[in-house]
Amino acid sequence: MGRCEQCIIREFSSLKALTREELLTISETKSHYLVKKGETLFTEDESLNGVYCIKNGFCKLTKLNSNGKDTIVKIAKRGDLLGQRSIINEEKSNLTAIALDDMEICFIPKKEMLESFTDNNKFSLLITRDICSHLKDADKGLADHTHKTVKERLAIVLLKLEELGGTDPKTDALNIQLSREDLANMVGTATESCIRLLSDLKKEGIIKLEGKKIILTDRTELKALAV
User: Fold this and answer.
1) To 10 degrees, the CA torsion angle through 204, 181, 134, 21?
2) 109 close to 117: Cβ distance less than 8 angstroms
3) Cα gap 112→42, rounded to integer Å
4) How far apart are CA 113 and CA 152, in angstroms?
5) Backbone angle region of 214, left / alpha / beta, with phi > 0 → left and psi within -120 to 50 → alpha
6) Residue 9: per-residue pLDDT
7) 135, β-bridge pairs
8) Positions in the chain whose pLDDT score sits under 70
9) How far is CA 129 from the centre of its chain?
């Protein structure tokens, strides 16, 4: 298990603001483990005892809607911290986190996170900015669902998946592979409608489909749709 002060992942998150001494303390108390694809990290309304740092892999964050179905509100990636708002506000988690592929996770106990948040102003500022950024993304997502067509929202999601996870250098396919149901969930439409629109984009030469893999072939047109 690597030490926090030597871990490159901290440069992608608010952990970069921690002092060497604070990182050493976290290294002594954190735990490191693997999460298999499809496994749950934590659930909505769960009391969290710490913060999860993603070392490798992707997970989906979902929320139960009024119809009793889970809605995907965010895809978390390498370097993201999960659960920080719940820890700071001392509230139960408002989301469920499920691994989209095999993941490496570090778990930092609540006590050490709160001590650093209280004592290190730069760290607390970065965490606050991170939380504000998530709220801004949520506002934009709500606006898109209100004002964009389903095809435009699909283009937005496909470009977002590429931005978050990049593409496979060998196949050029999106690294984040969602089921058609999950993709439809993010777009905000029925699975059948999503499959039909993917087929339309394929016919228009904007994407290629190879099984579950999606390859973006005309990003200019996708960006035009997403505007």
Assistant:
1) -110
2) no
3) 19
4) 40
5) beta
6) 60
7) none
8) 1-3, 5-6, 8-12, 141-143, 145-146
9) 16
What pTM, to 2 d.p., does this model score? 0.83
| 72-98 pLDDT, tens digit each | 999 999 989 899 888 888 889 999 999
Q: Is 166 left (phi over 0), alpha (psi -120 to 50) or beta?
A: left
Q: Concatenate the DSSP letters of all residues of 49-99 into one string.
A: SEEEEEEE--EEEEEE-TTS-EEEEEEE-TT-EESHHHHHHT---SSEEEE
Nearest to 18 by CA among 90, 105, 121, 128: 121
Q: Mapping DSSP to helix (H, G, I), strand (E, B) and coil, where does residue 149 land?
A: coil
Q: Give the ranges where the chain is alpha helix by DSSP (H).
A: 20-29, 84-89, 110-119, 121-147, 150-165, 180-187, 191-203, 219-226
Q: Distance between CA 205 and CA 218 in Å, rounded?
A: 7
